[in-house]
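Fill in residues.
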């Protein structure tokens, strides 16, 4: 909550724009601007953030500040502000207040629904334009980060792929980034009709190999060489994931056998993968996200054995490959 307050005050931007580096407490308060009577309160607000690694403090009383790499994520337009708005929104926070009551008394599928008279997160999202904007902004900002790594370090994933469908990619950010990096690949955003209603197609976006299709992934997915699922499956329980994966398998199975085999590209966590176990912060992040999925969506973060079981149950007989290039998340290729 202290970080949310600092971001809402504009602290990261004020620190970043200051010609004085590191900026003093007094000048930071002036830049925000705050009444001088709030200076001591600002110092106390900044102190835990400095020790959490969101900023760096200098001086005997740590009253001069500069931005760490983590702190730069919270500049306006970056990943952090919308992410904080989404997860610290009172509607979202209801899940955590309902945990013990849900365990003891509730018949609702997830704690979130127990706190909202049985309404799901998605139903509440459609009724709250502020939270809806935070959700889509955070997904778009996250896609910018992931797309940068994907096209820079994992280009081989797209070898031989002439067409790709980004399922649930309603913000268009990921598909457009891939389309720009691979101009010979036809990239399609596939999401619910009302989600993609305002997504710009090729004539407006300036990307010729990009298009938009509305539909429901549970009813079927447009055929393609590859289907991309970025942070989609962790929102759903195993039964729903099997439905989605079966639709994906059908979409990538109807290719010319002379060409490279189709595949499903999944960007999600593999809990306890080799790169994470030795990193306490990443491991903790995975467990925290698993709690978030269970409390809010009836979803889950899965370990490798759970992923393997899903692929086999969905009819993927060609095996899978895990690429660990995305911090606590991984890129998984599943072959039909």
């Amino acid at each position: 909550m202290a970080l949310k307050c600092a971001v809402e005050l504009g602290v990261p931007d004020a620190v970043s724009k200051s010609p004085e580096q590191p900026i003093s407490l007094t000048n930071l308060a002036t830049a925000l601007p705050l009444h001088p009577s709030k200076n001591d309160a600002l110092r106390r607000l900044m102190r835990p953030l400095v020790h959490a690694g969101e900023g760096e403090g200098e001086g005997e009383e740590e009253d001069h500040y500069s931005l760490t790499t983590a702190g730069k994520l919270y500049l306006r337009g970056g990943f952090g502000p919308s992410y904080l708005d989404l997860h610290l929104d009172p509607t979202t926070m209801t899940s955590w207040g309902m945990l013990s009551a849900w365990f003891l008394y509730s018949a609702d599928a997830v704690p979130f629904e127990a706190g909202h008279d049985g309404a799901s997160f998605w139903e509440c999202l459609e009724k709250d334009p502020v939270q809806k904007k935070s959700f889509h902004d955070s997904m778009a900002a996250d896609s910018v980060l992931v797309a940068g790594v994907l096209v820079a370090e994992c280009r081989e994933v797209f070898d031989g792929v002439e067409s790709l469908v980004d399922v649930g990619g309603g913000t268009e950010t990921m598909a457009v980034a891939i389309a720009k990096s691979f101009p010979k690949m036809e990239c399609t955003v596939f999401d619910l009709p009302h989600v993609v209603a305002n997504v710009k197609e090729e004539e407006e976006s300036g990307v010729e190999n990009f298009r938009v299709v509305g539909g429901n992934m549970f009813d079927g997915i447009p055929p393609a060489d590859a289907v991309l699922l970025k942070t989609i499956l962790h929102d759903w329980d195993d039964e729903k994931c099997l439905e989605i994966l079966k639709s994906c398998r059908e979409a990538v199975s109807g290719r010319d056998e002379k060409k490279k085999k189709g595949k499903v590209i999944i960007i999600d966590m593999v809990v306890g993968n080799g790169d994470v176990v030795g990193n306490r912060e990443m491991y903790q992040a995975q467990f925290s996200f698993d709690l978030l999925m269970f409390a809010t969506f009836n979803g889950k973060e899965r370990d490798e054995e759970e992923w393997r079981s899903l692929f086999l149950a969905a009819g993927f007989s060609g095996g899978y490959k895990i690429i660990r290039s995305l911090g606590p998340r991984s890129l998984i290729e599943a072959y039909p």
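The first strand starts at residue 23 and ends at 24.
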